[in-house]
Amino acid sequence: MAAALLTAACGDKAQQKDGDQVVLIGQASPLTGPQAHLGKDNENGARMALDEINAAGLTLGGRKVVLEMRSEDDAADPKTATTVAQKLVDEGVVGVIGHLNSGATIPASRIYSSNGIPQISPSATAVAYTAAGYKTAFRVMTNDAQQGSVLGNYAVTRLGAKKIAIIDDRTAYGQGLADEVEKAVKAAGGDVVAREYTSDRSTDFMAILTSIKGKSPDLVFFGGMDPQAAPMIKQMKQLGMKAKFLGGDGAQTPTFIELAGASAEGALASNPGLPLDAMPGGTAFKARFEAKYGTIQNYAPYAYDAMHVLIAAMKRADSSDPAKYLAELPKTDYQGVTGHIRFDAKGDLTGGAVTLYQVKGGTWQPLETVQSGQ
Amino acid sequence: MDIFLQQLINGLVLGSVYALVALGYTMVYGILELINFAHGEITMMGAMVALAVIGALALAAPGLPGVLVLGAGLAVAIPVCVALGLLIERVAYRPLRHAPRLAPLITAIGVSIILQNIAMLIWGKQYIPFPAILPQARHTVYGASITNVQIAILLLATGIMLTLILVVRKTRLGRAMRATAQSRQVASLMGVDVNRVIAATFAIGSALAAVAGVMVSAYYGLAHYYMGFLLGLKAFSAAVLGGIGNLAGAMLGGLLLGLIESFGAGYIGDLTGGFLGSNYQDVFAFFVLITVLVFRPSGLLGVRGGERA
Q1: Does A290 touch chain B (CB under 8 A)?
Q2: Which end of chain B is less congested by CB atoms within 10 angstroms, N or C?
Q3: Nearest CB to A255: which of B10, B127, B269?
Q4: Which residue in A182, A173, A168, A175 sits closest to A124, CA to CA?
Q5: B224 and chain A in contact, CB less than 8 A
Q6: Across the interface, do B10 and A206 touch by the CB < 8 Å criterion?
Q7: Is B135 within 8 Å of chain A by CB?
Q8: What residues of chain B lie within 8 A of the CB of A198, using their CB?
Q9: Is B186 in the A-facing interface, judged by CB distances under 8 Å?
Q10: Which residue of chain B is at minimal alpha-carbon distance from A208?
Q11: How many Cβ pairs closer than 8 A exist between chain A and B?
């Protein structure tokens, strides 16, 4: 019944333009505030894909279709995200690319799910997003669990660390990542010699590092953000610790190097996804994107692929009706700019890539890219 | 053994920073029975101003030796913090001196929020790196590491605390401070300029806060507009632990809190067989605080009517 009403509503909203059917696609990301540059980047990536599809011409159910994008600002705020999600649903979008942050994506996903609107996030990494079990939730980005398992495995098998100490900042992100690393280290035959904790406000880690030093680990993993990671690696050097430092994407930032100074040299950290140059279609995408919108900030290629994946599902279903093309999304098998996109049963990207970086000569240099689940 | 010694060094360095900040809380409380919640933010301002000066100097004269640059940062930060302390006392506390005790407490919290926001407007929300201007030499003593910066913090803090005790015990100003602490009315009847003494107390406390702020940011290598909050809270707890209003108490409380945190975080996991981890370090520290206060409500060295200043 709800689905029938919804279809009717969509039918009403889909206006006619020169005899063509207009189909609305939603996009949501922070377009104001400190992350506005990232939000705009997502919007541009999605728009570029949409313009290309329109230019190539799209026919669904025997009718010519013109796609239009409705872009909304969620301000990276969970509360605003739900308002914006409802607004998009009310406007009659048939699918959504977004949101950018996990914190905004998760509450919005409930609204899309209860209205049957498919959603593909280009950049949310929190496990909780797809763990809620919504049939409408997908992502084209490696999640934190995949990243954690790659990190733990990499530490043991590639960096040759036998004894590993793990620290986390007790946030949902830091703890989640550290737990996955711990599991992966044990699975790879490594030994977790210490599990210590701090907070996302601390700057003093001397006590826990001293305790860790007593267990002489080969590697210290930290699940948390750069304001903690930077003083931590400094204090490791102060204590004369020889252990390698490994972090997640919270530490793989220019700020980390700025704050840690010379101590940052040699530090390792990961980031989900591929560096742009290493993406299958990276160089070509970069040229086309930058001619139109300027420098790529971060997730534009993912937003671009997400839009293509969404429309490809519509083509296979030969319909823009969410109730019909949603069934096609899990069957996605798409070669995109960012790599080969397929979804698992939860809507997560299968074999998502994780790239490891090391600080060399004061900048992050990519070391290698690992596919998760291998 | 080397781990024990290392934790001792960690605790003493952390504790001497707490002690310096705690002195500011305890001196003001001793004289006015006012908890100056803006004190933590003055520490932050000290760090921020010093960083701004150091940054400007690094651009203007890149060849200067690090100690000199740091000294210049301190030389600007101390007067700025003293002026700030005096201004806060004049604007936010003095007009309320005869108001109910809750009123200046509220203005104190207000001033603290204002200072945080001013710092955020001037220096932004991001973490600011402290340039590596000091040589990071590391010495090994019986298997434990100690850096130049740590040695400097220990020596400087000890020197400042001894000087302060001498000032309070031996000088005219110190005598006036002790008299004012015992009774403001009687002291003013004896010809003590109470307003001047209170202003001097704020000035000394703010200067100590400036030094502590620079120490903290040089030690951890960063500064942030919010850094004063947690530091202020810890230092206030240290002052209460030692007996608020008591100078020696603030020093003892600061050192103890530093040691408790250090040993707590370092040994709690091993002692409880992994049942409690280092995430309980603050719980452990405050558990000790509560236990002390249950048995000695006025703190370790707090005696009513004793030496307060």
Answers
A1: no
A2: N
A3: B127
A4: A173
A5: yes
A6: yes
A7: no
A8: 278-279
A9: no
A10: B266
A11: 93
3-state secondary structure of A370: strand
A269: nearest Cα among A179, A142, A365: A365
Q: Where are the domains of chain A?
A: 2-142+277-343, 145-272+354-371
Please provide the average confidence, as pLDDT, over all residues in chain A: 90
Binding-face residues of A in 156-195 toward B, CB within 8 A: 170, 194-195
Closest Cβ opposite residue B277 in set A197, A213, A234: A197
Q: Is B268 an interface residue toward A (CB < 8 Å)?
A: no
Q: Which residues pair with A67 in a beta bridge?
A: A23
Provide the residue ranges of all domains of chain B, joining segments of one domain with +: 16-227
Reading the block at residue B17, the tokens are 């920073």
CA distance, residue A187 to nearest chain B CA (Å): 21
Contact B277 A196 (CB under 8 A): yes
Interchain contact, B265 vs A208, CB within 8 Å: yes
pLDDT tens for residues B141-162?
888 899 999 999 999 999 999 9
The CATH architecture assigned to A145-272+354-371 reads 3-Layer(aba) Sandwich (3.40)
Long-range CB contacts for residues A339-348, cutoff 8 Å, separation at least 24: A339/A274, A339/A279, A339/A280, A341/A140, A341/A305, A341/A309, A343/A138, A346/A130, A346/A131, A346/A133, A347/A130, A347/A134, A347/A135, A347/A137, A347/A138, A347/A139, A348/A130, A348/A139, A348/A143, A348/A146
**Closest Cα partner for A227 from A155, A174, A172, A164?**
A174
B277 chain-A contacts, CB cut-off 8 A: 195-197
> Hey, is the C-beta of A240 within 8 angstroms of any chain B C-beta?
yes
**What's the rounded Cα separation, in Å, for the pair A224 and A360?**
21
Cβ separation A230–B269 shorter than 8 A: no
pLDDT: which is higher, B62 or B188: B188
Question: Does this chain's domain A2-142+277-343 share its CATH topology with A145-272+354-371?
Answer: yes
Stated pTM of the model: 0.82
* Of the options 3.30.40.10, 3.40.50.300, 1.20.5.170, 3.40.50.2300, the CATH number for the domain spanning A2-142+277-343: 3.40.50.2300
Task: Report the alpha-carbon distance of residue B144 to residue A239 in Å, rounded.
Answer: 8
Nearest chain A residue (CA) to B222: A259
Contact A227 B10 (CB under 8 A): no
Contact B145 A240 (CB under 8 A): yes
State the ipTM, two decimals.
0.87
Q: How many residues are given for chain A?
A: 374
Amino acid at A68: E
Tell me which chain B residue has its CA closest to the CA of residue A34. Answer: B125
- Range A343-360 average pLDDT: 93
